[in-house]
Design goal:
The protein is α/β, with parallel strands linked by helices. It contains four helices and seven strands.
């Protein structure tokens, strides 16, 4: 049974920082890695993937794959291709991924799936969960999920193969640095995000995710 082996929590203040986080994340990835991105609409999933594509040095502009479901970005050098998938409209996981007839070998690629939780985990026993939450209030509260977003896990002990949710009032790096006197408009203008990266499976055993917190 797969369990979380590594975790990092990062506060991101601007879209530029989100792209930089994607570049740092790319340095940790290798062919066959599966990255699942979770976050409300506009949270920064595509911005992070754009930085990841820059870090992997792939061809083509990384944009939201909503209308095509999946895009393949070939490498410009010796690195792996990037497969960028929007699973919002996928209902069947692996079978539907294979039906997309992607001109690329998934085990030899880095596969990034937006809205992938609960849909494509069967692609790999080892995966990286990236959850992006947005601060909207003066007290650093997190944005409620978009109506179309996957439901948040219930406040119970999760199965061993599901990353344990990070409480919004946790101490340490998970706490958003938003001053209590900051207005809601100021918090939104600051574009503050909390990004939680969790490695699941033996692939991530012993992997140091601290470079993501730099």
């Amino acid at each position: 049974m797969n369990v979380p082996y590594a975790r990092a929590q990062i506060t991101v203040n601007t879209p530029e920082h989100m792209g930089d986080l994607g570049r740092r994340l790319a340095a940790l990835l290798r062919p066959g890695d599966l990255v699942l991105l979770t976050g409300e609409l506009g949270a920064g999933k595509t911005t992070l993937t754009r930085g990841l594509g820059a870090g992997l040095d792939v061809r083509g502009a990384v944009t939201s794959p909503t209308f095509v479901i999946a895009r393949v970005h070939p490498p410009l050098g010796d690195g792996p291709p990037l497969v960028h998938v929007d699973a919002y409209r996928l209902g069947g996981g692996l079978d539907e991924m294979e039906d997309l007839d992607l001109d690329v070998s998934l085990p030899e690629s880095v596969v990034v799936v937006e809205w992938g939780d609960g849909k494509v985990e069967e692609l790999s026993d080892d995966r990286l969960h990236v959850v992006i939450e947005r601060a909207v209030g003066a007290d650093g509260e997190l944005a409620a999920p978009h109506p179309g977003a996957p439901a948040a896990p219930a406040a119970t002990t999760p199965p061993a193969d599901v990353p344990e949710p990070i409480p919004a009032n946790a101490t340490g790096p998970a706490v958003l640095d938003v001053d209590a006197a900051t207005t809601e408009a100021d918090a939104e203008a600051a574009d503050v995000r909390r990004v939680t990266v969790t490695g699941v499976g033996a692939r991530w055993a012993g992997v140091d995710l601290s470079p993501l917190e730099a």
